[in-house]
Amino acid sequence: MSILQKIADIEAEMARTQKNKATSGHLGLLKAKLAKLRRELIEPKGGGGGAGEGFDVAKTGDARIGFVGFPSVGKSTLLSNLAGVYSEVAAYEFTTLTTVPGVIRYKGAKIQLLDLPGIIEGAKDGKGRGKQVIAVARTCSLIFIVLDVLKPLQHKRIIERELEGFGIRLNKEPPNIQFKKKDKGGLNLTSLVQQSELDTDLVKTILNEYKIHNADITLRYDATTEDLIDVIEGNRVYIPCIYLLNKIDQISIEELDIIYKIPHTVPISAHHKWNFDDLLEKMWDYLKLVRIYTKPKGQLPDYTSPVVLKEGKSSVEDFCNKLHRSIIREFKIALVWGSSVKHCPQRVGKEHILNDEDVVQIIKKV
Ligand SMILES: Nc1nc2c(ncn2[C@@H]2O[C@H](COP(=O)(O)OP(=O)(O)OP(=O)(O)O)[C@@H](O)[C@H]2O)c(=O)[nH]1
Ligand SMILES: [Mg+2]
């Protein structure tokens, strides 16, 4: 039986099974089996090249955004009109057959945009070029899911499922679950809050499926079976996502009002370049980039080309490493102006966390 057939069988069995306390163990087991099969699809046994091989383009700039969507929703039109790069646009489906990159500069940051071929339902299971497209999507710092406003939002669900099936988690934080495999001692499950789904039996069943018999697990919130499996699998990527509802030139103002209420969306018209300002603003928010201006001694800060870091990786040390590998060895202290410090300038060490638009002067050991 092929992996796809096995997956289909399990999905069918899950759909048949009623969800209640008595079946939760069985469902948990099925979910774990499903996750394992999906991993086999992504990383075929026996190694070999990754699924994205030959399809990926070199990373450039401070961040990378991938356009994912069904065929003919306007991804290439968006790339052409946003980045001024030519990518073939046509009324027929599957116009774009490979990754087409473009670059924009926004607020001093260089952002790489990737126009990807259209995907269809079943992409994650190897249909069409979907698998390669999703493999490239996994490498992005932000995903734009492009939807056609005239098509039902059901498309949104399908694309989300495709990406989820490939280990991508959209607009989600990594689960706050501590998981540590051990050599002996059995299973130690600690729940810091009341759990509505996971109990010792269920956790044991799931771990058994992974042949894990000794582990410390701490659940710091009301976790789901899926969250636990994500942590055990360990290869999930957590990527922010914006839904672009394209072709709003084809709907009424009243319809537009309703659409605006859906979270994480921006309505646009790629063809008419409508609402690009909103799109870029939101893109910037979701990228969570931190711009740092350098200030050479005795000179004004250079406000034209910031060093761009990512939120969560914006210490003075990260800043130094982005400038040059050798700098941290000669680092003594840094002077910082901006919202991350109380006094301006303030002397800080390499652990200090910088905020967006801070100005930094490095002082080297003599
Ligand atoms: N009315 C309207 N049509 C648009 C808009 N944006 C794109 N289109 C049209 O939609 C069709 C498909 O556009 P493409 O940009 O080729 O779509 P795509 O998503 O790149 O398609 P694939 O490469 O096949 O996946 C073309 O006929 C475009 O002119 C828009 O904002 N409004
Ligand atoms: Mg295209």
Automatic annotation (TrEMBL):
Primary localization class, coarse: cytoplasm
Domain TGS positions: 288-364
Pfam families, A to Z: MMR_HSR1, MMR_HSR1_Xtn, TGS
Key words of the record: Cytoplasm, GTP-binding, Hydrolase, Magnesium, Metal-binding, Nucleotide-binding, Nucleus
Molecular function via GO: cytoskeletal protein binding; GTP binding; GTPase activity; metal ion binding
InterPro entries: Beta-grasp_dom_sf, DRG, G_OBG, GTP-bd, GTP-binding_2, GTP1-OBG_CS, P-loop_NTPase, Small_GTP-bd
Domain OBG-type G intervals: 63-288
Cellular localisation: Cytoplasm; Nucleus
Gene Ontology annotations of biological process type: positive regulation of microtubule polymerization
Keyword presence, Cytoplasm: yes
Gene3D superfamilies: 3.10.20.30, 6.10.140.1070
Record's GO cellular component terms: cytoplasm; nucleus
Entry keyword Methyltransferase: no
PANTHER family linked: DEVELOPMENTALLY-REGULATED GTP-BINDING PROTEIN 2 (PTHR43127)
Name of the featured protein: Developmentally-regulated GTP-binding protein 1
Organism, as annotated: Biomphalaria glabrata (Bloodfluke planorb)
Taxonomic path: Eukaryota, Metazoa, Spiralia, Lophotrochozoa, Mollusca
Gene: 106056185
